[in-house]
Amino acid sequence: MSLITEKIKPSGQKSVLMNFKSWLREQPTIFAKIVVYIISVGFALLFFSLIVIAIGCDPLIAFKTLFSSSIGSLPRLIETLVITTPLIFTGVAVAIAFKINFWNLGVEGQLFWGAIALTYVGIFVTDVPPPIQFLLGFVLAFLMGGLWALIPGALKAYLRVNEIIVSIMLNFVTFLVVDYLASGPWHDPMGFEPLTYPVSESVTLPRLVLGTRFHIGLFIAILFAFLIYIILNKSRLGFEIKVVGDNAEAAKGCGINIARAVVLTSILSGGIAGLCGASEIAGVHHRLLRGISPGYGFTGIIIALLAKNHPIWVIPVAFFFAILLSGSNALQRTIMMPAGAVYAIQAIVALCILIPEYVLRR
Fold first, then answer.
1. Measured between alpha carbons, how far is 216 from 275 in angstroms, rounded to an integer?
2. Which run of H or of E encompasses 111?
3. What's the domain count of the chain?
4. Is residue 17 one of the residues assigned to a domain?
């Protein structure tokens, strides 16, 4: 009798899962995705609560602190939107690269090259009209970020070198360059830490709310998210990116130049990351230093994965992660949560959203 029960029990569990999957298939695609996301977020909140309990605090207090410190008032919401801006840029940069299976993990370094480019124009190119200087700064930032991403892109396209290793290693090269410039030839002697001279006002982005750091870069980031969406869905390059990403052999059989598509995509991905760095210099910091990015490029990888590499979905996911980053300082003060715990929470959220969807697909 016990043997029969053991055989029936797994099949019953399997039938429940199969029935749920069958029910999802019968629902509209958007509704089915929303259901999966709700289930996944529920698991994420559960794991977050367990972490807080393990620390010895009340999860309700932690949730209240997290959201009140990030969106609980207008000034806090504005500061969260400031953090959302670079996360949209980096999320979109990663998303378009992942679309073609180009694993660009060097967005953090490409971001800093954009910051270096705009800082150079803002400090040294001062003998041109302000509009030209502004335009030159952002164009050069796009080109520098794109060229830095072109290194792993070209190596992958023509020599089949693993872009993951190359792009990660290039990040550390960039960090050393930034440290050298901020503490060496571009160092501001009035500063007590490695940072450069301030950039010219001609290359700064206008503030949307006086007395805050909220600048127009947020709308530029959203504009690029929609622009990349249009490129992916309305252009020949976008069609090639999708086909190569779905099936490279089929794309080759259709006459698509795979190497060309990978190279162009890497330049576009790195260019958007470069614009992110330029936006942070022009809108927030106004000078180059290592602190302009606390890991926005790496967080953009998680954002792109959760947004399913969809540029428009990057926007709300980036806002959610901005809430986590903005509220992390308050959690450190109230429940003594370690500084690195917020990154663990990000990973848990990603796993809780990706794993259930994978299981349901299986």
1. 13
2. helix 107-124
3. 2
4. no
Q: How many residues are there in the chain?
A: 362
The verdict on 53 and 112 lying in the same domain is no
Q: Domain of residue 36: give its range.
A: 28-57+336-362
Residue 284 DSSP one-character state: I
Distance, in Å, from the CA atom of 298 to the CA atom of 142, rounded to the nearest integer, reads 19
SS3 label, residue 224: helix
In Å, what is the CA distance from 289 to each residue of 49, 177, 183, 187?
A: 36, 11, 9, 10
Quick one: which of 185, 52, 63 has its CA closest to 116? 185
Q: Which residue has the tokens 């996301």?
A: 37
Give, in order, the Cα–Cα distances in Å from 275 to each of 108, 132, 142, 172. Answer: 12, 17, 5, 19
> 176 near 290, Cβ under 8 Å?
no
CATH of residue 182: 1.10.3470
Burial class (CB in 10 A: 0-12, 13-18, 19+), 177: middle
Tens of pLDDT along the chain (362 residues) come to 444 444 444 444 456 667 767 776 766 667 777 777 777 778 878 888 888 888 777 888 888 888 888 898 999 999 999 999 999 999 999 999 999 999 999 999 999 999 999 999 999 998 999 999 999 999 999 999 999 999 999 999 999 999 999 999 999 999 999 999 999 999 999 878 899 999 999 999 999 998 889 999 999 999 999 999 999 999 999 999 999 999 988 888 888 999 999 999 999 999 999 999 999 999 999 999 988 998 899 999 999 988 889 999 999 999 999 998 888 777 877 777 776 777 777 777 778 777 766 666 65
* Claim to verify: residue 93 and residue 43 sit in the same structural domain: no
Please indicate, yes or no, whether residues 258 and 144 belong to a single structural domain of this protein: yes
Contact between 278 and 112 under an 8 Å Cβ cutoff? The reply is no
In single-letter form, the type of residue at position 88 comes to: I
Tell whether 11 is covered by a domain. Answer: no
**CA distances in angstroms from 26 to 8, 36, 149, listed in the order given:** 27, 14, 42
Is the domain of 190 the same as that of 44?
A: no
